[in-house]
Every structure is written in structure tokens, then in C-alpha cells.
Amino acid sequence: MRAAARWTIAAFGAIGAALIGGGPLVAVGRIHGFGDALIAGAALLAVLAGVSIAIWKVTQVLIPPVTTPASLTGPETRDLREMIDAAPADFFGGVATGVDDLLRHRMIAVNVNRALMGETDPRRRADLQRHLRRANANLARTDPYVRWLLAMAHVWQIRAALHDARRWCLLAMVIVAAGAVAFLTITGRSHPDQPRPKTLPAKIAAATPSSPIR
Description:
Region (Disordered): 190-214
Helix content: over 70%
Number of helices: 7
Order of helices and strands: HHHHHHH
Protein name: Conserved putative membrane protein
Largest sheet: none
Organism: Actinomadura verrucosospora
Keywords: Membrane, Transmembrane, Transmembrane helix
Mean pLDDT: 80
Radius of gyration: 34 Å
Transmembrane segments: 37-56, 168-186
């Protein structure tokens, strides 16, 4: 997915270099008047904005996201959660009945450890230590699945960023196309002040070697 993002950045960079780098130099002599210059400048600005938007959004795909258990509640991983919760045995076996059930053991261990740190009664401390050992055993059993789940969530986050970048690239292509059409239209039309080619008189135009001019 990141290779596709790099190719997209290179493609939009080439488009921007072709339209913005060479276009104004070739067509600078075909712009007449302040109005035409303003339209041509706005068209080039639109092209530059479209290319910049595409490159900016695609580069977000190359930035690795931070993935934590809290990331599993975001919209980027919603379909992943739904897929796992629909058939948890296919992903976790008998370890957990869903994503929330898999992640609850870590929170239980944290809460028991906090209670143990603030407890001074020896009997209650012994009970809490027993609960903590059980919670740590559950953590050791579920941690491999949690690591796998976070790795999958990381991939889903990159996938969501790439899908978002594709939508922005489509919008950027529309902006670039509109700017290019406007620029080519304003620089390609003939201006009324431009000198027109002179036409030959009718007698000269109709003259041939067999019929000399009189």
C-alpha cells in the first residue's frame, strides 16, 4: 500500500512539473491584457493547489500511525471489529469471545495492581496478590492474540488512510484538469489585436505561369 502511495506521489509530481514548469514558459507570449493574465494565473494556481492537495494527502499514508487498543474503537477499524466479533472462534479460538473480551484482561490486571499498591491490610493484600497472579496468567495467554490484533489494526489504519487519499486524489485530478483546460483555453485563443496574415490580391492569387499578369 505504501508503494502505491509513493508511485502516486511521483505521478502527481510529474504532472505538476509538466503543467507548471513548462506551460507558462511556452504560452507566456500568448497572454494579452490584465484579464487574460489573471485568468491564466488563477488556472495555474488551481493546478498547483490540486497537485499539492494530492501529494499532501498521499504522504499521510507514509506516516506510520500509532496503534493502541484504543485504536480499535475508531472508524478506521470498525469493519475489522465487526468481522472478528462475527466469528471470534475463527480468530481467537477459545481464548476470548470477542475483541472486548480479549482486551479486558489487561484492564483487570491494571486495576488489581492499583488496588494492591494502595492496600495496607495483610489479608486483603494476599487476596489481591492471588487475583493479580491469575490476571497475569490470563495476560500471558491472551497477549499473543492482542499483538496480532494490534498488527491487523495497524494495517487497517494504513488502508483507511490510503482510501481517504484516493478520494482526495480524485478531487485533485478534477481541480488539475479544470485548471489545465482554463489555462490552455486562455492561451490558445486568438486575440483581436494580433496581426492577421495579409491576403494577396485576386489577380496575383489567380496568376499562373501560363497566364502572365497584365
